Amino acid sequence: MIQITGYILTLLYVCNLFFPALFRTLPSEIPALAGHAAFGIFALLLARGARRTTNHFLYFLRLITAAFATGLVTFLADRFAHVYFPEHLSLITYATSIALIAGLSMITGCSQDLVMQAMTADNAERLDSSREDDDPSEEKSPQFGIPVQPLRYRMRPVMGIVAGILTIGVTLFSTLFFRFSHGLYGQAFIVLAFIAFRETPNPHEKTTPPSVRLIALRRRMERTLFEDTLAFRRALLILSALTLVFSLLSQLPGVPTRFMTLDMAGCLIALPLAFFLPEFKDAPSTARRRMTYSVLPASCTVLFVIRLLIESP
Question: Residue 214 falls within a domain, yes or no?
């Protein structure tokens, strides 16, 4: 249900862009909030998916492919149908957030490797020599919750730290320079949601037996995106603090307006929606996965064609 809600809110937002005359009776804030809420929903889904997927590089490539397809349609709509898009390429924001998480993973994982090598140099040498003949496709670093390298090849710690810093730098620069949707706030929203979704060790283990109401709440939470109340409280606290900090910083003199607009706080609407609405728990089939990435470009294409047909003499 949470995915379907995100699609409905996205469709409302996009329809308002292509056919604003149909929404003149609605306050302009409603479609805008729908768009921000949809961004927040898919940001939470992306953060949860980054915890579950086994191939983050493929995850990144799918998002980039869908982003370029959507960008092509929006460019043609702007060029030939004069459709104005206040937010550009939200899918690239999602993709760059995956790259940002990968860069942080490289830095944290390789930094810990350096510490381990400094503390036990001899043991580290024997460990590296014993792994020289291992299959590199089976090696995986769990630091920061995801594999450090997309292709899972081994990398020296110093090179990994440098690669992580370069990845983060390129990601942040591209976001600021090209002004992708939701900017730095959107990237930080996804990264902090990813941190909030970290595994909780034995969340239900208590000395006293739980009440019937608590058992019912836990069973309902297991069907949602958060899976337990602790993950929801973490996400609510961290993302609310992030929104407050960015809102205050955006009010400082000299701060560019693309840093954050106040209506971007509508992304927080995704939190109560994700708390109450269930999530699809089954592993997605190939057809459903393709549909997930093609919904936005396909919807924009259909609306663009309809707009051209309406405006044609």
Answer: no
Alpha-carbon distance of 186 to 123, in angstroms, equals 42
- Residue 13 has which token pair? 């937002």
Q: How many CB atoms lie within 10 A of CB 180?
A: 24
- Model confidence band, residue 201 (pLDDT cutoffs 50, 70, 90): low
In a domain, 113, yes or no: yes
Q: Is the pLDDT of residue 119 over 80?
A: no
Burial class from Cβ neighbours inside 10 Å (0-12, 13-18, 19+) for residue 270 reads buried
- Does some domain include residue 134? yes
Domain presence at residue 280 = yes
pTM, two decimals, is 0.80
How far is 283 from 288, CA to CA, in rounded Å? 10
The confidence score (pLDDT) of residue 137 equals: 43
Range of the domain at 173: 2-199+219-311
Mean pLDDT, residues 210-236 taken together: 75
Q: What φ, ψ does residue 23 adopt, rounded to 5°? A: -115, 25
**Distance between CA atoms of residues 298 and 14, nearest Å:** 12
Q: Which of 240, 239, 235, 232 is nearest to 276 (CA)?
A: 232
C-alpha–C-alpha distance, residues 248 and 226, integer Å: 28
Q: How many domains does the chain have?
A: 1
Q: Which residues contact residue 122 at a Cβ distance below 8 angstroms, ignoring those fewer than 6 apart?
A: none
